[in-house]
Amino acid sequence: MTVDAILGDLTVEPADALVNAANSSLLGGGGVDGALHAAAGPELLAECRRVRASQYPEGLPVGQSVATGAGRLPARWVIHTVGPNRTAGQTDESLLSACYTSALDVACGLGATTVAFPAVGAGVYGWDATTAARVAVDAVLAHPRTGIQRVRFVLFSPRLLQAFSDALDAARA
Ligand code: AR6
Prior knowledge:
Layout: E1 2-7, E2 17-22, H1 31-40, H2 42-55, E3 65-69, E4 77-82, H3 93-110, E5 114-117, H4 129-142, E6 150-155, H5 158-172
Parallel strand pairs: 1-6, 2-4, 2-5, 5-6
Antiparallel strand pairs: 3-4
Helix pairs in contact: 3-4, 4-5
Bound molecules: ligand AR6.
């Protein structure tokens, strides 16, 4: 079972499950959310609308996760999670940690063996790279990850890759 971090684009990462840094509406947005929807095609949004209407009429709460199919993405599932919006005053790290824990819970339930994450919360939602990385790495390493063979952080900038690599080194020291 491996946990690693690479520089890359989540939309082209082959994995059973790709985690989306979504918002509560589940109806798309910018950042990695917009990129995943653009690459997946309209079926992803259609499925998100169905999930929203049937399971989360008030929106997906912060820290929780839900799966859909993956459209044209190189994955079987997209697991949508909602990070706390630090810029809007949601500064509770435990909610950011819960994004990773709940996404892995969903992945295990699906039987996913490989899971790829972006740096949830580290874009529009305003978490600094060091904190985003530490919280992500600690949550993933603490999770039992039953049946999962690889968890990969796919980071969009060298600065984020460095932060995640440092957090992995620190957690394993
Ligand atoms: N692959 C990997 N990482 C990416 C990609 C990509 N293709 N594109 C962006 N990132 P963000 P958040 C990085 O803003 O902070 C959306 O509008 C990005 O550089 O996508 O959780 C949602 O709908 C950053 O490091 O997510 C919500 O409204 C990281 O992904 C809101 O943004 C996360 O940045 C969520 O904000």
